[in-house]
Please model this.
Amino acid sequence: GIQVEQSPPDLILQEGANSTLRCNFSDSVNNLQWFHQNPWGQLINLFYIPSGTKQNGRLSATTVATERYSLLYISSSQTTDSGVYFCAVEWFMRFGAGTRLTVKP
Amino acid sequence: EAGVAQSPRYKIIEKRQSVAFWCNPISGHATLYWYQQILGQGPKLLIQFQNNGVVDDSQLPKDRFSAERLKGVDSTLKIQPAKLEDSAVYLCASSLQGRTEAFFGQGTRLTVV
Model:
């Protein structure tokens, strides 16, 4: 089955810094989502982005389906951005292992 | 619009007991997913329904886990008997028709002692 790899596994930033999270997948996909899991365990939808680029405030995402990767950009990070970021692919929603982000004040 | 509702939020049981979780998806969403998330890992799909039919249950431990979605709306996930390794958060999600954006409930945290 399709494999999903996320990098880096852990990321520590100072407040105000920018970061890029990556999601690689082993086969072409028709469906890709990015989620933020907050410290209380809730999975929050960030982007539904099977291809192209989207922006929402300080966050943006780009998926290059032909090259089998997606990137999540976080600019001017805040402590509330801390948590685990997951990408999930295809309609059966295969998740990566996540990137744990810690933003320090 | 109401989100995905799950209950209970927390459950502690002894090994070999049974437990059931309930999920009410977003109104009109045909696709419903159950996931198991063990601490430190990404969610793992247990079962996916399209209306009241099973699309994928290849990772559901069928000797102890069962799930149903009567009338294509609410769903229940049952574990009987529970093992220590079943301690995890059980997440329910729904989407309009399986190839669109999915939304998650808050999950049920199960502890088996």
Summary: The interface with chain B takes residues 30-31, 33, 35, 40-43, 45, 48, 86, 88, 91-98 of chain A (CB under 8 Å). DSSP finds no helices and eleven strands in chain A. The radius of gyration of chain A is 13 Å. The mean pLDDT of chain A is 94.
